[in-house]
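Box 4.2: Ligand-aware structure prediction
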Amino acid sequence: MDIWVINPNATESMTAKIADAARRVARPGTTIVARTGQGGPASIEGHADEAMALPGLLAAIREAEAAGADGIVVACFDDPGLGACRELATGPVMGICEAAAKAATVIATSFGVVTTLPRSVPIIEEALRRYGVHDRCRKVRAASVPVLGLEEPGSEARERVRDEILRARDEDGCEAVILGCAGMADLVEWLSRDCAIPVIDGVAVATTMVEALVAAGIATSKAGAYAAPNPK
Ligand code: 5HY
């Protein structure tokens, strides 16, 4: 099967690490096709960036559909434009926030999220409410690092993320912590070891969830909200 993993921001280095994270967990028969959103912002930090990323994201969805993609991962923790992506897609479409949040509720009674900037916290809290898991989340924390700080070798970003995860574990009583940015995907193994708590990367989980749905023959329903857009 072919799973397309789409980074809606325009940073190729982040797409590469996202693709690596997806390929690390993909089954032998699965091909991961990675795409970077064209024309969008270099990083998505808030509502306006998210809106500006949508045209490139939807163009990539159309490309995936034309190529016969079996499933799609939207690799941005804001889960931008999921409804629109699902209208355009045939196979299952998973956002990394939704995937990670639902996985966390399976392995723990309470979880936390560590994202990049404080401005993303309310956006993530709203997403968790939308997914019906907000009551299982102790706290959404921000490491106060810009998204692209995660791309800078030698920056303090990874240590700041680790320190926030330790606070989530020790102060909030979280039993698991979700990485609240696709750009953290390459840190998951180190952080899980260093913090001695399950750390969940939404890219890996979304990839395996899409694989499972495709393997089970489950595609996006076209019976209602996710029907293809009306011809104009
Ligand atoms: C992301 N922004 O996963 C989100 C998350 C964040 O460019 N990729 C981005 O940190 O706001």
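In the box above, the bound molecule is 5HY. The radius of gyration is 17 Å.
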